[in-house]
Design brief:
Layout: E1 14-19, E2 30-33, E3 47-52, E4 55-65, E5 74-75, E6 78-79, H1 88-100, H2 105-112, H3 115-118, H4 134-141, H5 154-169, E7 174-179, H6 185-198, E8 202-206, H7 214-223, E9 228-231, H8 237-248, E10 254-257, E11 269-274, H9 292-302, E12 307-311, H10 316-323, E13 328-332, E14 344-348, H11 349-354, H12 363-374, E15 378-382, E16 389-394, E17 411-413, E18 418-420, E19 427-429, E20 442-447, H13 449-459, E21 465-468, H14 478-487, E22 493-496, E23 509-514, H15 528-540, E24 551-556, H16 562-568, H17 572-586, E25 593-601, H18 604-621, E26 629-641, E27 644-653, E28 669-673
Parallel strand pairs: 2-5, 7-12, 7-13, 8-10, 8-11, 9-10, 11-12, 14-24, 15-22, 15-23, 21-22, 23-24
Antiparallel strand pairs: 1-2, 1-4, 3-4, 3-6, 16-20, 17-18, 18-19, 25-27, 25-28, 26-27
Helix pairs in contact: 1-2, 1-9, 4-7, 5-6, 15-16, 16-17
The protein binds adenosine-5'-diphosphate and zinc ion (2 copies).
One zinc ion binds next to loops.
Length: about 675
């Protein structure tokens, strides 16, 4: 073929390919030559078969180039896909994630694609049921004309304005929507999504898994009937692959989903919404350990799409970014329709003990429950611990029953008659005598939801009770059934863990009882204050969403702790000010980034030795004067987990990437950049 001016671009005869195999822990791929017959087919984002050592493996083309820095290249054998599985923004995003989280690119690509799409078998894992998940049913059930949106309040309109401007201009912009619980944030998202669709583009809305109630789904589906796709962990592999296919084919314009939905292959993405941006569920806890909020921000940049992060309790990192200009700040300081935030009454549990009340229900909470139910209201009792007793202790020798695999106490579950480890799942029958000293004086201490339920039943025998925690929603869809029953008024009181804390908008709830506000307070982590503040604010925010006045009773042993005090006063700004001061003084995020390296081994001494060796190497090799330091090694918070001893070291610094080349990478190590609680 003759080219007009004889200056045609050289054919991109080389391809960088990332093998889809776990053994390749490092590197961003290998260079192969592309045979002439495959030049038009081995496109970036396609799977190919390549020779690898003596084997043939499947890999992903991540880049094509005209020349190669490698002397000898072997040819690609075969192209698997007719069309790329990953579009250009997804490929760019994959490389960004690999670089930011020190993760192998092959693992990132694998995480971006559902197993059903990759064609891999969900090896060994249980097959999903044949029925469709209730959430999908809710998404599809809405047919006919779209619901009529309410007119935005003046403050909602003001909050939506910068987003609508960015949508109209088709440009990237980052907005933090800081709005109290029930202030109408979701309505702002829905308005922005409608504007995006009207502009011919598509929208992605991320919510924490826990907020994916039929109510949330119905709200989105009702506004955009037939155009919604749903991605969450309750889907079977087949359902997930089918939703992915619909999205890629352009059959869905709005994707609602949890963390991994950030990889949805929307061809014309024009808006990214991240609700409850502070939720720890946005952090992936396996390789690649990405944080979906940061990934969402980068995705928006790559697609020229605005990104809005919403929360009543943004992470202080995010809040600070909104004050340094990295994010635009919009606020909804009041609830919709002038509804007041519920007053929070504090009960000091130390006083309760002095008065001789050892029950999990204080006199004030008992009275409030009586009043609430006499008036026909519903109540939620929140306790972020499941089980009957959180420790089983011997009163003679003082030892606690602990897991044989992990350094934690076993939790007594009366219903199942067993003591269980909440980390590895191991369990033993309830012992009659102390396994250490044979004394029969063993008893349970510390209260979980199961014990609380029994207490409430005893005191309020006529109350219709529901309980929601991981013990009774392990069955698929049980969560939705309990939620629907409570919403329909089939129960008066709901007892639950953090599963009941977020996102619910139920008008009948007139009392929220926080049975123990301190469960996360003394956790050995720099975020324990923030997590506590956020959880208390969210739980309290479930009350008072209807027309009747509502109240919150908060029980605590630490009423003077800043997180508890500011949550009680609904005072985010004061909380953030205190928290930021502490973070700055201790050089914790956002004043530095962290990378936690954990080594696990069956032999404690070897684990410690390996961690010391790695810490020494790191300290020797880190660039001097780079503002990076190495903390530890120390035993991990859970020193022993699933039979392995864990030691960890933490690299800290503003430019944490400068340490990546020196991180330990041998078997047994795991690397977590920007760790979350
Ligand atoms: P948030 O997401 O901040 O918790 P929502 O968007 O769920 O708040 O709003 C709280 C309640 O107020 C919901 O029941 C919602 O339907 C209602 N609402 C929100 N905006 C409006 C509006 N402009 N007019 C009438 N009702 C509204
Ligand atoms: Zn004993
Ligand atoms: Zn265990």
């Amino acid at each position: 073929m003759v080219d007009g001016v004889g200056l045609s671009a050289p054919p991109a005869a080389y391809a960088r390919v990332v093998p889809e195999t776990r053994s390749i822990l490092e590197g961003s791929g290998f260079t192969y030559s592309v045979p002439e017959a495959l030049l038009g087919r081995a496109l970036p984002g396609c799977r190919v078969v390549v020779p690898f050592g003596r084997r043939s493996v499947v890999g992903y083309v991540v880049e094509r180039s005209a020349d190669s820095s490698v002397e000898e290249t072997r040819p690609i054998t075969e192209v698997v896909d007719e069309a790329p599985l990953l579009a250009a923004p997804q490929l760019a995003l994959a490389q960004w994630i690999a670089a930011r989280y020190a993760a192998p690119l092959g693992e990132v690509v694998k995480a971006m694609l559902p197993a059903g799409v990759r064609g891999a078998r969900p090896g060994g894992r249980r097959r999903g049921p044949r029925t469709t998940s209730l959430a999908l049913v809710a998404a599809r059930a809405v047919a006919g004309a779209p619901e009529h949106p309410p007119v935005l309040s003046p403050s909602q309109a003001e909050a939506a304005a910068p987003l609508l401007a960015a949508i109209a201009g088709g440009c990237h912009r980052r907005v933090l929507l800081h709005g109290v619980t029930g202030s109408g944030k979701t309505e702002v998202y829905l308005t922005a999504i409608a504007a995006t669709l009207a502009a011919g583009r598509q929208a992605l809305a991320l919510v924490p898994e826990i907020s994916l109630t039929p109510q949330t789904v119905r709200r989105f589906a009702g506004r955009f009937p037939g155009r919604l796709a749903l991605i969450h962990s309750g889907l079977t592999e087949a359902e997930r692959a089918a939703e992915w296919g619909r999205i890629r084919a352009g059959d869905a314009d709005v994707v609602v989903g949890s963390r991994s939905a950030v990889f949805a292959p929307l061809p014309r993405l024009g808006l990214v919404v991240v609700d409850e941006e502070d939720a720890s569920a946005y952090k992936q806890d396996r390789i690649p350990r990405y944080h979906a909020v940061d990934v969402a921000l980068e995705l928006g940049r790559l697609c020229d799409a605005p990104v809005v992060l919403g929360s009543a309790t943004p992470r202080v990192e995010t809040f600070l970014r909104a004050h340094t200009g990295d994010l635009d700040l919009t606020r909804l300081p009041e609830r919709i329709a002038g509804r007041p935030l519920p007053p929070i009454e504090v009960v000091d549990l130390r006083d309760e003990l002095h008065a001789g009340n050892r029950s999990p229900i204080s006199a004030a909470l008992e009275r409030a429950m009586q009043e609430c139910h006499a008036a026909g209201g519903q109540s939620i009792l929140f306790l972020n611990r499941r089980g009957t007793a959180t420790v089983v202790l011997c009163r003679d020798c003082g030892s606690a029953l602990s897991c044989r695999n992990c350094s934690v106490s076993l939790v007594y579950h009366h219903g199942r008659g067993r003591c269980e480890c909440h980390y590895c799942g191991a369990s033993v029958p309830v012992p009659r005598v102390c396994p250490g000293c044979r004394s029969p004086a063993i008893r349970g201490l510390g209260i979980g939801t199961e014990r609380l339920e029994a207490e409430v039943r005893e005191r309020f025998p006529k109350l219709r009770l529901l309980r929601m925690d991981r013990d009774n929603v392990s069955e698929r869809d049980a969560y939705h059934r309990i939620y629907e029953a409570f919403r329909a008024g089939e129960a008066d009181c709901l007892i639950g863990t953090q599963m009941v804390a977020k996102g619910w908008d139920l008008g009948g709830v007139r009392l929220v009882g926080i049975v123990n506000a301190d469960t996360a307070l003394h956790f050995p982590d720099y975020r324990s204050g923030e997590v506590t503040f956020s959880l208390l604010t969210q739980v309290a925010g479930r009350a008072g969403r209807g027309d009747e006045p509502a109240r919150v009773i908060l029980q605590t042993y630490s009423p003077e702790h800043y997180a508890v005090r500011h949550a009680t006063g609904h005072d985010y700004l004061s909380f953030a000010r205190d928290e930021i001061r502490i973070r700055r003084a201790l050089r914790f995020p956002p004043y530095a980034r962290l990378c936690v390296c954990t080594y696990a081994h069956r032999d404690d001494a070897r684990a410690e030795m390996e961690a010391r060796r790695a810490a020494q190497i790191l300290s020797d090799r880190l660039p001097p004067g780079g503002g990076l330091d190495v903390l530890g090694p120390t035993p991990a918070f859970l020193h022993r987990l699933r039979g392995e001893y864990r030691w960890q070291l933490t690299v800290r610094g503003e430019e944490i990437e400068r340490a990546f080349a020196h991180l330990p990478s041998t078997r047994g190590w795991s690397i977590d950049v920007d760790p979350a609680l």
